[in-house]
Amino acid sequence: MNPSVKIFSGTGSQALAEKIAHRFGAPLGKINVQKFSDGEIQPVFLESIRGDYIFLIQSTFAPTDNLMELLLMIDAAKRASAGRVVAVIPYYGFARQDRKDRPRVAIGAKLVATLLEAAGADRVITMDLHAAQIQGFFDIPVDHLDSSAIFIPYIEQLKLKNLTFAAPDVGSTNRVREVANYFNAEMVICDKHRKRANEIASMVVIGEVEGKDIVLVDDICDTAGTLTKAAGLLMEKGAKSVRALCTHPILSGNAYQTIEDSVLDELVVCDTIPLKGKSDKIKVLSVADLFAIAIKNAHENKSISSLFFHSQLRERERTREHRS
Predict the structure, then answer these.
(1) What is this structure's pTM?
(2) Taking a C-beta distance cutoff of 8 angstroms, is the pair 139, 117 a contact?
(3) How far apart are CA 279 and CA 115, in angstroms?
(4) Cβ 314 vs Cβ 174: under 8 Å
(5) Which of 172-181, 185-194, 242-251 has the highest mean pLDDT?
(6) How far is CA 179 from the centre of its chain?
(7) Cβ within 8 Å of residue 8, ≥6 positions away
(8) Quick count: other Cβ atoms within 10 Å of Cβ 97?
(9) Which of 98, 105, 226, 281 is the most core-located residue (most Cβ within 10 A)?
(10) What whole-number distance in Å separates Cα of residue 228 and Cα of residue 240?
(11) Which of 255, 259, 250, 196 is nearest to 232 (CA)?
């Protein structure tokens, strides 16, 4: 007999956690996160969790209090004799620090993985890691969900006649190619060169975009500089329209104004991170259903491969082959 499921939320992802719990069909568990005057955090579970299957929902976006809070929640759950503790991290912070790209720097993504394991997490459920190989930083199971399962239906209902997908940088090429293959559409690449972090020196478009309805696809939108510069360049090259799909809306600095002033028709994001501002050009799609299903299947020891974009692509290819 499976142990009972209890879902708890950190303070950084309260709104999303409520949606996930609602879709799952259970109320959020009772927890109080005390914050002391010196900045320390102490989570306290307000109900028994002994032997239960615990899911802790918290995106680890800035400030780092969100990460520390999650670590303390995991530790508290283990010390309260929870049966299993799963860290549900819709946005995995520090993911862009996934390698030594210059001397004497930390690999933050690996450090966070080590901290989560040391705190006592038995499993991690996350979405659209900046680099898929981050899964290899863990010695516990990682369920890496794909936002394409959310974005694809949205693109389909747009019914764009001259659909072409664009990678805003070379690092996004594989992700964009898979989505383009799903639609049997063309793709182009915006190759950028940076002088320093968050500052683009130059960008060129590789591919034909004239008269096309372009959809830019990326995992993170931080300052929005890359997306808006790419969108402007694509329009200069003769694109009919440009919109962007980004999973994690960090949107730091002047990002909201940058998006408002850009040629983008719209920026479609997920609610893995709560928005700090408003823009008529920003549309939010919820990941709650996807995570609720992942939690249900993890609890029932069922496969969650149907939630992965690769499985959808294989199924679509099988259907095409059958029809032909």
Answers:
(1) 0.91
(2) yes
(3) 36
(4) no
(5) 242-251
(6) 16
(7) 17, 28, 29, 31, 45, 54, 55, 56, 57, 73
(8) 18
(9) 226
(10) 15
(11) 259
Tokens of 316: 């679509």
Q: Hey, what's the torsion of the CAs at 73, 78, 81, 87, to 10 degrees?
A: 70
- The predicted-structure confidence for 106-157, as pLDDT tens digits, reads as follows 999 999 999 999 999 999 999 999 999 999 999 999 999 999 999 999 999 9
DSSP three-state, residue 10: coil
Average pLDDT, integer, range 240-250: 97
- Separation CA 114–CA 73 (nearest Å): 16
State how far the alpha carbon of 170 is from the alpha carbons of 145, 175, 211, in Å. Answer: 22, 10, 23
Task: Tell me the torsion sign for CA atoms 288, 292, 298, 299.
Answer: positive
Selected catalytic residue, list 30, 35, 161, 192: 192
Give the residue among 307, 268, 290 at the shortest CA–CA distance from 57: 290
**Cis amide bond preceding 63, omega within 30:** yes
pLDDT category at 196 given cuts 50, 70, 90 is low
The residue count of the chain comes to 324
- Amino acid 22 reads H
Residue linked to tokens 């990460």? 67
Is 229 among the catalytic positions? no
Q: Kindly state the tokens that stand for 131.
A: 């680099």
- Determine the 3-state secondary structure of 212 from DSSP: coil
Which letter does DSSP use for residue 193 in this model?
Answer: E
Give Cα 312 to chain centroid, integer Å. 18
